[in-house]
Design a protein that fits this description.
438 residues, Beta Polymerase, domain 2, 6-stranded parallel sheet, 56% helix, elongated
Protein backbone atom coordinates (compact mmCIF):
# COMPACT_ATOMS: atom_id res chain seq x y z
CA UNK A 1 0.00 0.00 0.00
CA UNK A 2 1.49 3.32 -1.04
CA UNK A 3 1.43 6.51 1.02
CA UNK A 4 -1.59 8.66 0.25
CA UNK A 5 -0.87 12.04 -1.26
CA UNK A 6 -4.36 13.01 -2.46
CA UNK A 7 -5.95 15.79 -0.46
CA UNK A 8 -9.39 14.31 0.25
CA UNK A 9 -11.13 15.59 3.36
CA UNK A 10 -14.67 14.46 2.60
CA UNK A 11 -15.55 13.00 6.00
CA UNK A 12 -18.75 11.47 4.61
CA UNK A 13 -16.46 8.87 3.00
CA UNK A 14 -15.32 7.76 6.47
CA UNK A 15 -16.28 4.25 7.56
CA UNK A 16 -15.78 2.37 10.83
CA UNK A 17 -16.40 -1.35 11.19
CA UNK A 18 -15.48 -3.33 14.30
CA UNK A 19 -16.43 -5.19 17.43
CA UNK A 20 -15.64 -4.65 21.12
CA UNK A 21 -16.14 -6.02 24.62
CA UNK A 22 -19.67 -4.64 24.45
CA UNK A 23 -20.63 -6.73 21.42
CA UNK A 24 -18.39 -9.80 21.28
CA UNK A 25 -16.68 -12.23 23.69
CA UNK A 26 -12.91 -12.33 23.89
CA UNK A 27 -12.86 -15.61 21.94
CA UNK A 28 -14.29 -13.81 18.89
CA UNK A 29 -12.12 -10.72 19.28
CA UNK A 30 -8.99 -12.87 19.50
CA UNK A 31 -9.72 -14.40 16.09
CA UNK A 32 -9.57 -10.94 14.50
CA UNK A 33 -6.42 -9.78 16.28
CA UNK A 34 -3.81 -9.59 13.51
CA UNK A 35 -0.07 -10.01 14.13
CA UNK A 36 2.04 -7.09 12.96
CA UNK A 37 3.55 -9.20 10.16
CA UNK A 38 0.11 -9.62 8.55
CA UNK A 39 -0.73 -5.91 8.50
CA UNK A 40 1.02 -4.96 5.21
CA UNK A 41 -0.91 -7.66 3.33
CA UNK A 42 -4.13 -6.61 5.08
CA UNK A 43 -3.71 -2.98 4.04
CA UNK A 44 -2.73 -4.01 0.51
CA UNK A 45 -5.92 -6.04 0.20
CA UNK A 46 -7.97 -3.01 1.26
CA UNK A 47 -6.15 -0.79 -1.24
CA UNK A 48 -6.89 -3.24 -4.06
CA UNK A 49 -10.56 -3.13 -3.05
CA UNK A 50 -10.71 0.66 -3.52
CA UNK A 51 -10.09 1.79 0.07
CA UNK A 52 -8.21 5.10 0.04
CA UNK A 53 -7.01 5.21 3.65
CA UNK A 54 -7.17 2.75 6.54
CA UNK A 55 -6.14 2.23 10.15
CA UNK A 56 -6.57 -1.14 11.85
CA UNK A 57 -7.00 -0.60 15.62
CA UNK A 58 -6.43 -3.51 17.97
CA UNK A 59 -6.61 -3.15 21.77
CA UNK A 60 -7.38 -5.43 24.70
CA UNK A 61 -11.11 -4.90 24.28
CA UNK A 62 -11.73 -4.09 20.61
CA UNK A 63 -10.80 -4.65 16.99
CA UNK A 64 -11.80 -1.84 14.62
CA UNK A 65 -10.97 -0.68 11.11
CA UNK A 66 -11.28 2.98 10.11
CA UNK A 67 -11.39 3.56 6.34
CA UNK A 68 -12.16 6.13 3.69
CA UNK A 69 -13.64 5.02 0.38
CA UNK A 70 -15.91 6.43 -2.32
CA UNK A 71 -17.70 3.08 -2.59
CA UNK A 72 -18.57 2.48 1.05
CA UNK A 73 -20.68 -0.62 0.40
CA UNK A 74 -17.81 -2.32 -1.39
CA UNK A 75 -15.34 -1.38 1.37
CA UNK A 76 -17.57 -2.84 4.10
CA UNK A 77 -18.09 -6.00 2.06
CA UNK A 78 -14.32 -6.36 1.71
CA UNK A 79 -13.84 -6.13 5.48
CA UNK A 80 -16.53 -8.77 6.04
CA UNK A 81 -14.77 -11.12 3.64
CA UNK A 82 -11.46 -10.49 5.40
CA UNK A 83 -13.15 -11.25 8.75
CA UNK A 84 -14.31 -14.57 7.36
CA UNK A 85 -10.82 -15.26 6.03
CA UNK A 86 -9.03 -14.57 9.33
CA UNK A 87 -11.60 -16.22 11.62
CA UNK A 88 -12.32 -19.18 9.32
CA UNK A 89 -15.96 -18.61 10.24
CA UNK A 90 -18.94 -17.61 8.07
CA UNK A 91 -19.90 -13.99 8.63
CA UNK A 92 -23.34 -15.04 9.87
CA UNK A 93 -21.73 -16.42 13.03
CA UNK A 94 -20.39 -13.05 14.17
CA UNK A 95 -22.33 -10.44 12.21
CA UNK A 96 -24.48 -9.55 15.22
CA UNK A 97 -21.28 -8.62 17.07
CA UNK A 98 -20.10 -6.24 14.35
CA UNK A 99 -21.02 -2.55 14.31
CA UNK A 100 -20.65 -0.13 11.40
CA UNK A 101 -20.57 3.68 11.59
CA UNK A 102 -20.14 6.41 9.02
CA UNK A 103 -19.07 10.03 8.85
CA UNK A 104 -19.45 12.08 12.02
CA UNK A 105 -20.60 9.01 14.02
CA UNK A 106 -17.29 7.30 13.27
CA UNK A 107 -15.41 10.49 14.23
CA UNK A 108 -17.23 10.75 17.56
CA UNK A 109 -16.65 7.05 18.28
CA UNK A 110 -12.88 7.24 17.73
CA UNK A 111 -12.51 10.35 19.91
CA UNK A 112 -14.52 8.64 22.66
CA UNK A 113 -12.57 5.39 22.40
CA UNK A 114 -9.17 7.12 22.48
CA UNK A 115 -10.29 9.17 25.50
CA UNK A 116 -11.28 5.95 27.32
CA UNK A 117 -14.99 6.78 27.43
CA UNK A 118 -15.89 3.45 25.80
CA UNK A 119 -13.48 1.27 27.79
CA UNK A 120 -14.42 -1.60 30.09
CA UNK A 121 -12.97 0.55 32.90
CA UNK A 122 -13.81 4.15 31.98
CA UNK A 123 -10.82 6.43 32.42
CA UNK A 124 -8.11 3.79 32.12
CA UNK A 125 -4.92 5.20 30.60
CA UNK A 126 -3.71 2.28 28.46
CA UNK A 127 -6.14 2.74 25.58
CA UNK A 128 -4.59 5.96 24.22
CA UNK A 129 -1.19 4.29 23.89
CA UNK A 130 -2.74 1.25 22.19
CA UNK A 131 -4.53 3.41 19.61
CA UNK A 132 -1.32 5.37 19.00
CA UNK A 133 0.57 2.14 18.37
CA UNK A 134 -2.08 0.94 15.89
CA UNK A 135 -1.94 4.26 14.08
CA UNK A 136 1.88 4.18 13.97
CA UNK A 137 1.81 0.77 12.27
CA UNK A 138 -0.71 2.03 9.71
CA UNK A 139 1.56 4.99 8.90
CA UNK A 140 4.53 2.63 8.51
CA UNK A 141 2.50 0.62 6.00
CA UNK A 142 1.65 3.79 4.06
CA UNK A 143 -2.05 3.18 4.69
CA UNK A 144 -3.05 6.63 5.93
CA UNK A 145 -3.65 9.94 4.19
CA UNK A 146 -4.82 13.48 4.84
CA UNK A 147 -8.15 12.63 6.49
CA UNK A 148 -7.13 9.80 8.83
CA UNK A 149 -3.87 11.49 9.76
CA UNK A 150 -5.78 14.56 10.88
CA UNK A 151 -8.51 12.48 12.55
CA UNK A 152 -6.17 10.37 14.66
CA UNK A 153 -4.07 13.33 15.73
CA UNK A 154 -7.29 15.07 16.74
CA UNK A 155 -8.24 11.95 18.75
CA UNK A 156 -4.91 12.03 20.59
CA UNK A 157 -5.34 15.73 21.36
CA UNK A 158 -8.87 15.08 22.63
CA UNK A 159 -7.64 12.29 24.89
CA UNK A 160 -5.05 14.67 26.35
CA UNK A 161 -7.74 17.32 26.98
CA UNK A 162 -9.98 14.79 28.69
CA UNK A 163 -7.11 13.52 30.84
CA UNK A 164 -5.93 16.99 31.92
CA UNK A 165 -9.24 18.89 32.09
CA UNK A 166 -11.34 16.24 33.86
CA UNK A 167 -10.86 13.82 36.73
CA UNK A 168 -12.06 10.81 34.76
CA UNK A 169 -8.72 8.99 35.14
CA UNK A 170 -8.38 9.81 38.82
CA UNK A 171 -9.49 7.69 41.77
CA UNK A 172 -9.25 3.95 40.98
CA UNK A 173 -12.32 1.73 40.81
CA UNK A 174 -10.98 -1.72 41.77
CA UNK A 175 -10.78 -2.75 45.41
CA UNK A 176 -7.16 -3.87 45.01
CA UNK A 177 -5.94 -0.63 43.43
CA UNK A 178 -7.86 1.43 46.00
CA UNK A 179 -6.17 -0.47 48.83
CA UNK A 180 -2.76 0.30 47.35
CA UNK A 181 -3.69 3.95 46.81
CA UNK A 182 -4.65 4.26 50.48
CA UNK A 183 -1.33 2.70 51.47
CA UNK A 184 0.49 5.15 49.20
CA UNK A 185 -1.25 8.06 50.93
CA UNK A 186 0.22 6.90 54.25
CA UNK A 187 3.66 5.76 53.09
CA UNK A 188 4.88 8.22 50.49
CA UNK A 189 8.07 6.30 49.66
CA UNK A 190 6.85 2.75 49.10
CA UNK A 191 10.30 1.52 48.13
CA UNK A 192 11.32 1.58 51.81
CA UNK A 193 8.24 -0.36 52.98
CA UNK A 194 7.42 -4.02 53.52
CA UNK A 195 4.17 -5.97 53.21
CA UNK A 196 2.81 -9.10 54.86
CA UNK A 197 0.15 -11.33 53.32
CA UNK A 198 -1.60 -13.60 55.80
CA UNK A 199 -3.41 -16.43 54.00
CA UNK A 200 -4.11 -16.59 50.28
CA UNK A 201 -7.03 -15.82 47.99
CA UNK A 202 -7.29 -13.96 44.68
CA UNK A 203 -7.84 -10.51 46.18
CA UNK A 204 -4.84 -10.73 48.51
CA UNK A 205 -2.65 -11.88 45.63
CA UNK A 206 -3.94 -9.10 43.40
CA UNK A 207 -3.13 -6.47 46.03
CA UNK A 208 0.39 -7.88 46.24
CA UNK A 209 0.75 -7.59 42.47
CA UNK A 210 -0.15 -3.90 42.69
CA UNK A 211 2.29 -3.45 45.58
CA UNK A 212 5.10 -5.10 43.60
CA UNK A 213 4.66 -2.34 40.98
CA UNK A 214 5.35 0.16 43.78
CA UNK A 215 8.85 -1.37 44.19
CA UNK A 216 8.32 -2.60 47.74
CA UNK A 217 11.49 -3.38 49.65
CA UNK A 218 10.23 -6.64 51.20
CA UNK A 219 7.25 -9.01 51.05
CA UNK A 220 6.44 -11.71 53.57
CA UNK A 221 3.87 -14.46 52.98
CA UNK A 222 2.40 -16.39 55.90
CA UNK A 223 0.47 -19.42 54.68
CA UNK A 224 -0.64 -22.79 55.94
CA UNK A 225 1.18 -24.55 53.08
CA UNK A 226 4.57 -23.71 51.64
CA UNK A 227 3.41 -24.85 48.18
CA UNK A 228 0.66 -22.26 48.06
CA UNK A 229 3.01 -19.51 49.22
CA UNK A 230 5.55 -20.48 46.54
CA UNK A 231 2.82 -20.36 43.89
CA UNK A 232 1.96 -16.80 44.96
CA UNK A 233 5.64 -15.82 44.71
CA UNK A 234 5.72 -17.09 41.13
CA UNK A 235 2.48 -15.32 40.24
CA UNK A 236 3.57 -11.93 41.59
CA UNK A 237 7.13 -12.32 40.23
CA UNK A 238 8.72 -11.46 43.57
CA UNK A 239 11.04 -13.47 45.79
CA UNK A 240 9.04 -13.13 48.99
CA UNK A 241 9.92 -14.55 52.39
CA UNK A 242 7.73 -17.49 53.36
CA UNK A 243 6.93 -18.06 57.03
CA UNK A 244 4.53 -20.35 58.94
CA UNK A 245 1.27 -18.88 60.24
CA UNK A 246 2.43 -19.23 63.87
CA UNK A 247 5.10 -16.55 63.32
CA UNK A 248 2.62 -13.89 62.18
CA UNK A 249 2.92 -11.70 65.32
CA UNK A 250 6.63 -11.10 64.80
CA UNK A 251 6.09 -10.47 61.09
CA UNK A 252 3.42 -7.83 61.80
CA UNK A 253 5.93 -6.01 64.00
CA UNK A 254 8.32 -5.85 61.05
CA UNK A 255 5.82 -5.11 58.24
CA UNK A 256 4.26 -1.76 57.31
CA UNK A 257 1.32 -3.11 55.30
CA UNK A 258 -0.60 -6.18 56.45
CA UNK A 259 -3.10 -7.93 54.18
CA UNK A 260 -5.19 -10.47 56.04
CA UNK A 261 -7.19 -13.09 54.14
CA UNK A 262 -7.60 -16.31 56.07
CA UNK A 263 -10.67 -18.30 57.01
CA UNK A 264 -11.26 -18.11 60.76
CA UNK A 265 -14.33 -18.05 63.05
CA UNK A 266 -12.89 -15.23 65.17
CA UNK A 267 -10.58 -12.22 64.97
CA UNK A 268 -7.01 -13.37 64.46
CA UNK A 269 -5.67 -9.87 65.16
CA UNK A 270 -7.14 -8.22 68.24
CA UNK A 271 -6.91 -4.67 69.55
CA UNK A 272 -4.86 -5.88 72.52
CA UNK A 273 -2.36 -7.66 70.28
CA UNK A 274 -2.07 -4.59 68.08
CA UNK A 275 -1.34 -2.26 71.02
CA UNK A 276 1.54 -4.50 72.05
CA UNK A 277 2.80 -4.61 68.47
CA UNK A 278 2.70 -0.81 68.23
CA UNK A 279 4.86 -0.56 71.36
CA UNK A 280 7.42 -2.85 69.71
CA UNK A 281 7.17 -0.77 66.53
CA UNK A 282 7.78 2.41 68.55
CA UNK A 283 4.65 3.97 67.07
CA UNK A 284 5.59 3.59 63.40
CA UNK A 285 2.41 3.63 61.20
CA UNK A 286 0.78 0.27 60.51
CA UNK A 287 -1.69 -0.24 57.66
CA UNK A 288 -4.16 -3.16 57.81
CA UNK A 289 -6.17 -4.41 54.82
CA UNK A 290 -8.76 -6.91 56.03
CA UNK A 291 -10.29 -8.65 53.01
CA UNK A 292 -11.54 -11.73 54.85
CA UNK A 293 -15.20 -12.56 55.37
CA UNK A 294 -15.79 -12.98 58.29
CA UNK A 295 -13.31 -10.25 59.22
CA UNK A 296 -9.90 -11.24 60.57
CA UNK A 297 -9.14 -7.98 62.35
CA UNK A 298 -10.98 -6.50 65.32
CA UNK A 299 -12.61 -3.20 64.18
CA UNK A 300 -11.40 -1.57 67.44
CA UNK A 301 -7.90 -1.68 65.97
CA UNK A 302 -8.83 1.42 63.95
CA UNK A 303 -8.97 3.46 67.16
CA UNK A 304 -5.29 2.90 67.97
CA UNK A 305 -2.97 5.80 67.16
CA UNK A 306 -1.06 5.44 63.87
CA UNK A 307 -3.00 2.27 62.96
CA UNK A 308 -5.08 2.41 59.76
CA UNK A 309 -7.66 -0.25 58.99
CA UNK A 310 -9.61 -0.87 55.78
CA UNK A 311 -11.93 -3.81 55.22
CA UNK A 312 -13.86 -5.03 52.17
CA UNK A 313 -16.87 -2.85 52.92
CA UNK A 314 -14.88 0.36 53.40
CA UNK A 315 -12.89 -0.30 50.21
CA UNK A 316 -16.09 -0.99 48.27
CA UNK A 317 -17.60 2.23 49.61
CA UNK A 318 -14.60 4.17 48.27
CA UNK A 319 -14.95 2.35 44.93
CA UNK A 320 -18.61 3.34 44.70
CA UNK A 321 -17.81 6.98 45.55
CA UNK A 322 -15.08 6.96 42.91
CA UNK A 323 -17.48 5.49 40.37
CA UNK A 324 -20.03 8.25 41.01
CA UNK A 325 -17.28 10.86 40.71
CA UNK A 326 -16.18 9.41 37.37
CA UNK A 327 -19.77 9.46 36.12
CA UNK A 328 -19.89 13.19 36.83
CA UNK A 329 -16.55 13.69 35.10
CA UNK A 330 -17.81 11.55 32.21
CA UNK A 331 -20.33 14.27 31.35
CA UNK A 332 -17.54 16.86 31.19
CA UNK A 333 -15.42 14.50 29.06
CA UNK A 334 -18.28 13.93 26.62
CA UNK A 335 -18.70 17.68 26.19
CA UNK A 336 -15.01 17.94 25.29
CA UNK A 337 -15.45 15.14 22.75
CA UNK A 338 -18.48 16.88 21.23
CA UNK A 339 -16.51 20.14 20.92
CA UNK A 340 -13.60 18.39 19.22
CA UNK A 341 -15.88 16.46 16.88
CA UNK A 342 -17.39 19.75 15.71
CA UNK A 343 -13.92 21.24 15.36
CA UNK A 344 -12.75 18.32 13.23
CA UNK A 345 -15.84 18.36 11.01
CA UNK A 346 -15.44 22.11 10.47
CA UNK A 347 -11.82 21.53 9.44
CA UNK A 348 -12.94 18.83 7.00
CA UNK A 349 -15.62 21.02 5.53
CA UNK A 350 -13.37 24.05 5.10
CA UNK A 351 -10.45 21.95 3.86
CA UNK A 352 -12.64 20.25 1.27
CA UNK A 353 -13.26 23.68 -0.24
CA UNK A 354 -9.56 24.55 -0.42
CA UNK A 355 -9.02 23.14 -3.95
CA UNK A 356 -12.16 24.89 -5.21
CA UNK A 357 -11.25 28.23 -3.64
CA UNK A 358 -7.66 27.95 -4.88
CA UNK A 359 -8.80 27.05 -8.41
CA UNK A 360 -11.23 29.99 -8.57
CA UNK A 361 -8.66 32.45 -7.18
CA UNK A 362 -6.02 31.17 -9.58
CA UNK A 363 -8.38 31.52 -12.54
CA UNK A 364 -9.33 35.08 -11.59
CA UNK A 365 -5.69 35.97 -11.01
CA UNK A 366 -4.71 34.43 -14.34
CA UNK A 367 -7.27 36.66 -16.10
CA UNK A 368 -6.18 39.72 -14.08
CA UNK A 369 -2.45 39.31 -14.72
CA UNK A 370 -3.05 38.35 -18.35
CA UNK A 371 -5.02 41.53 -19.03
CA UNK A 372 -2.44 43.65 -17.26
CA UNK A 373 0.36 42.10 -19.27
CA UNK A 374 -1.55 42.45 -22.53
CA UNK A 375 -2.15 46.17 -21.94
CA UNK A 376 1.21 46.94 -20.33
CA UNK A 377 2.93 47.69 -23.61
CA UNK A 378 -0.12 49.18 -25.38
CA UNK A 379 -2.69 51.31 -23.60
CA UNK A 380 -0.51 51.70 -20.50
CA UNK A 381 2.91 52.02 -22.09
CA UNK A 382 3.15 55.65 -21.01
CA UNK A 383 2.56 54.64 -17.32
CA UNK A 384 5.49 54.81 -14.95
CA UNK A 385 6.53 51.74 -12.95
CA UNK A 386 4.95 53.31 -9.88
CA UNK A 387 1.66 53.92 -11.75
CA UNK A 388 1.61 50.34 -13.02
CA UNK A 389 2.32 48.97 -9.52
CA UNK A 390 -0.67 50.95 -8.18
CA UNK A 391 -2.90 49.51 -10.92
CA UNK A 392 -1.70 46.00 -10.06
CA UNK A 393 -2.61 46.58 -6.42
CA UNK A 394 -5.99 48.02 -7.39
CA UNK A 395 -6.93 45.08 -9.63
CA UNK A 396 -5.81 42.61 -6.97
CA UNK A 397 -7.97 44.39 -4.39
CA UNK A 398 -10.98 44.37 -6.76
CA UNK A 399 -10.50 40.65 -7.38
CA UNK A 400 -10.26 39.80 -3.67
CA UNK A 401 -13.31 41.90 -2.77
CA UNK A 402 -15.30 40.40 -5.64
CA UNK A 403 -14.55 36.86 -4.45
CA UNK A 404 -14.89 37.59 -0.74
CA UNK A 405 -18.66 37.17 -0.33
CA UNK A 406 -19.01 34.08 -2.58
CA UNK A 407 -16.21 32.32 -0.67
CA UNK A 408 -17.56 33.31 2.75
CA UNK A 409 -21.08 32.12 1.85
CA UNK A 410 -19.70 28.90 0.42
CA UNK A 411 -17.90 28.22 3.72
CA UNK A 412 -21.03 29.07 5.71
CA UNK A 413 -23.22 26.73 3.69
CA UNK A 414 -20.66 23.96 4.12
CA UNK A 415 -20.35 24.49 7.88
CA UNK A 416 -24.12 24.17 8.24
CA UNK A 417 -24.12 20.68 6.76
CA UNK A 418 -23.23 17.28 8.16
CA UNK A 419 -22.92 13.86 6.59
CA UNK A 420 -25.74 13.45 4.04
CA UNK A 421 -26.09 17.16 3.24
CA UNK A 422 -22.33 17.52 2.93
CA UNK A 423 -22.40 15.68 -0.43
CA UNK A 424 -24.68 18.40 -1.85
CA UNK A 425 -22.26 21.10 -0.70
CA UNK A 426 -19.32 19.31 -2.31
CA UNK A 427 -21.28 19.06 -5.56
CA UNK A 428 -22.19 22.75 -5.41
CA UNK A 429 -18.56 23.65 -4.76
CA UNK A 430 -17.50 21.61 -7.79
CA UNK A 431 -20.19 23.28 -9.88
CA UNK A 432 -18.94 26.71 -8.77
CA UNK A 433 -15.37 25.76 -9.62
CA UNK A 434 -16.38 24.52 -13.08
CA UNK A 435 -18.45 27.66 -13.62
CA UNK A 436 -15.40 29.90 -13.28
CA UNK A 437 -12.60 27.66 -14.50
CA UNK A 438 -14.00 25.75 -17.49
Amino acid sequence: MHARSDYNTNFSNLILIGLSHKTAPVETRELLSLPALQLPAFYERLSEAGVDEAVYVSTCNRVEVYMTADDQESAVETIKKLMEFYTKLPHEQFRNSVYTMYGSDAVRHLLGVTSSLDSMVVGENEITGQVKESYRKAVECGATGTLLNRLFHKAFATAKRVRTDTGISKNPLSVASIAVEQARSIFHDMSERSALLIGAGEMGELILKYLVKENLNRIIIANRTVENAERICNDICFQAEIIPIVKVDQAITEADIVISSITAPHHVITAGDTREIMVDREGRPLFFIDIAVPRNIDPEVAGIENVFLYNVDSLKKIAEDNRKYRETEMERAERIVDEDVEDFLLWCEESSLAPTITAIKNKFDEIRTGELERNRNKKMKHFSEEDFRLIEELTLSIMNRTLHNPIINLKKSTAACHDGDAEDVYKNAKFLEDLFTK
